Task: structure prediction
Amino acid sequence: EISLAGERFQSCLREIRKRASDVEDEKKGIKIAKKDWENLHVHIASYNNFPTAAGLASSAAGLACLGDELSCWIRNIMDVLIVVGLELTNLNSGQGSGSACRSLYGGFVKWIMGNNEDGSDSLAVQVADEKHWDDLVILIAVVSAQQKETSSTSGMRESVETSLLLKHRAQEVVPKRIVQMEEAIKTKDFTSFAQLTCADSNQFHAVP
Result:
């Protein structure tokens, strides 16, 4: 087991506590004051069926699971509307790992960058569900289960600080490719889908 003392886990917990309010349900025997949420503790068990920290988005999957479970728990206690719950889950997952918000949905998902400094409008939306293109299959060959020497967070932070190409990608390349990719997905145009995927992968991995 690992401790939840890490900053990414604590971000998720802070977001949940911030949105919590006084709760009282005599039938269920529940009475929680807003100030008491700070003292509540949880034990969470999650398991990956693929290598952890090896470049297969294990942190995104794990933190999406954490955000979803915490949000479901508070939703059940507070009887929050499902729509509000989805927004909370989306935001809460992003607090732990930005890309985790994409792991909340099946099928094809787009991560909206947003403009707010606090990241509150940086959310994931489903472009098409998992049944839309059901004959498209992704195969992953695991050649090494070793953990990466450089974490995704520190690697991206360094790239943002040092790479001129990354800034160009974010401003000029990615917005156009997202539009093209959405169209390829909606029309099931595999040729365009594959070309865009390879071109973006090659350029992304060329970021110095």
Observations:
- The chain has a mean pLDDT of 77.
